[in-house]
Amino acid sequence: MRYTVQKRLVIFSFLCIPVGLLVLFLLYPTVKLFQFSFTNWNGISESFEYTGLKNYITAFQTPEVWTALGNNFLYFILHVIFIPLEVMVAVFLNNKIKGSNFFRSIVFMPYILNGVAVAYIFSYMYNPINGPLNALLGDMNLEFLIRNWLSDSSVVNYSLVAVSLWRFSGFHVILFLAGLQSVPADLYEAATIDGASAFQKFRYITAPGISRVIEIVLFLNVRGALQVFDIPFLMTQGGPGTASTTFTVYTIQTAFKYNNYGLASTLAVILMTIIIVFSMLQSKLFKGRDE
Amino acid sequence: MRKGKLGIWIAVTALLLSVLSGCSGGGSNKGDNAQGSGSESKTDSSAKAVTLKMVMWDSNNDFITFLNDKVKEYTQVKPNVTIELESFKSDSDYLQAVKVRAGGNALPDIIELKPNWLSDFKEQLMPLDGLGFVSGNKYADKYKVDGKILAVPSVSFPELVYYHPSVFKELNLEVPTTWPQFIDVLNKIKDNGTYIPYAMGGKDAWPDYPFNEFLPHILSDDENYLSAMAEQDAPFAKGTAFYEGFSQIAQLYDAKVMGPDPLGVGWDQATDLFVSKQAAVVASGLWFVPTYVSKTGSSDDLAAFPMPYRQNEDTPLKLMTFTDHFYGISSSTKYADEAKAFMEWFYSPEVYQDYIDHAQLGSAYEGIDANVPFLQDFYNNNKNEPFLYIPGNAAYTDLANAIQLDVKALGQEMMAGKTVDEISTDLNGKWSKAKSGK
Lengths: 291, 438
Description:
Chain A: This is ABC transporter permease. Chain A is mainly alpha-helical. Chain A is built from 13 helices and no strands.
């Protein structure tokens, strides 16, 4: 066998498996997802009909879809508001303080906890009967702050976002910390010699130094906020009624509870499109700043 | 040039894989059932060793263990047949798993179902009309889909209101037989302040089913009320059973007799409050009794009465009766004859008697009575008229799914303050739109 043929055979053999897996588990399901999004398949029946753009029109005309997206937006915006605080904590932990390794571990701990466990812990914390949170507020003479944390429609989404913040902020802090540690120390030394203030150092050295990390955190935030599922599903099942339903919870219910896989596929396509569009916008924004 | 050729190779391979996987994923490929049916032949020889897969749910571990052991006994009857039982702890997890398998044409041979799932799975179930074990079933005829019996119910049981007789005695309360009396009793318990009157568990949505699901149904006085709704243009409007029923429920929710936060606690916590006698009343099916006994050790301080949906004593006291744990045979099974033979054995008097005695629920078969003392006491002490829960037909199910109708979630919204008028207007709008779009 000629060398070039052997070489091609080896390359082909090595590529065959990963490409095959990619096609089987990524491309094929994605193609099927797009196909189902134009059908009325109920997920059980052996047959279905093509309904054109009906599912897309239904999705955009259904108020519950927009309500669910609004709830997702709350997760996004509150996480964004928390980014400066996360950066501050990272800056603090970046200093050589006693027990900084311990604090870094503590900050990261919520992220590695199982989502189901987190949901159960906070369900207990928010419990209206003998729940620690309301008991604590009572002991501190702050009775006026006591709420039905998971059953009051006007409060429930904030209660759930608080859990999300508790769980993911530590991860963001660790990412920022990694970014901070990649900024060369001599830049700060030079700035100190030049008489720069702490704010000026942050503005002109730290912020540009961790901009790539901020971009990653923002991307994770967009993706995470749009796909948030486990916390509302486990803690409230989207309730009371549909008050805390997020886009993914709504999609899952459309598919499995109401047997409308066609519409659920459409919602999944819409979600994918929103994430891609947001990521592209964000990427352009950061590229513009870099230039 | 070389790079170009390599790219073509990869593209061709990817296309081939895609086409191959596409063929294997075809939902209508009935001939491809060897793996899809979930069954497997232990050998290919003429011995015909067969493994039948059966799938069920139950929240009671002891019952799952019992059933697992019971179905294994079938090997003594038919040595070549092995029953492999797969169990789930909750019906919602079970339903999701079964739907996914149905979509992939990979259903087990014998499937357990709830009555309201039958029309969804009509294409996946084999008609059972004329088979021996169907003829003795008291209810199978009532649950025909498109004129065919697709599954048989294993149990029937009443939906009850449980209470602690000691609490009623302490507060000098009478068992209510009308809706105003029921609310009055709960108000008196609330006024006393010692106990939570009614343990709702509304965080889970489904525990409000005795009200939001059953009350309009019973008020309609038509067991086929849900199917009849599919014919109506505005089934939620003023004057309908739905509107009147929901208005009646609103009276109960507005009375604030369900503790400090009925939506903040789930079913398990609510029943714990009842079991520990912090709450006085709770409503559910007969299946709650084994749970109660397992937690307290006895049913000494437990009694039940029919939910008094009626407004006055001039009308009969209807008792909602539910049939459950239907079993059907998958239409894609490779072993239809073996599955039918197993079902004949499963519902034979001796095996079935053992089944319902362990399930601690009512019998669904003529001539066989369940040995459930609590149930016998209930029937001895309470006069009522059974009212069978019949789910909506395919037309109703399609419409309800199209508007994402979940009456139990609506119950949550009512507890959170949504009015019946708001619900009625919203649902009528969606219903007429869904109906005209058909």
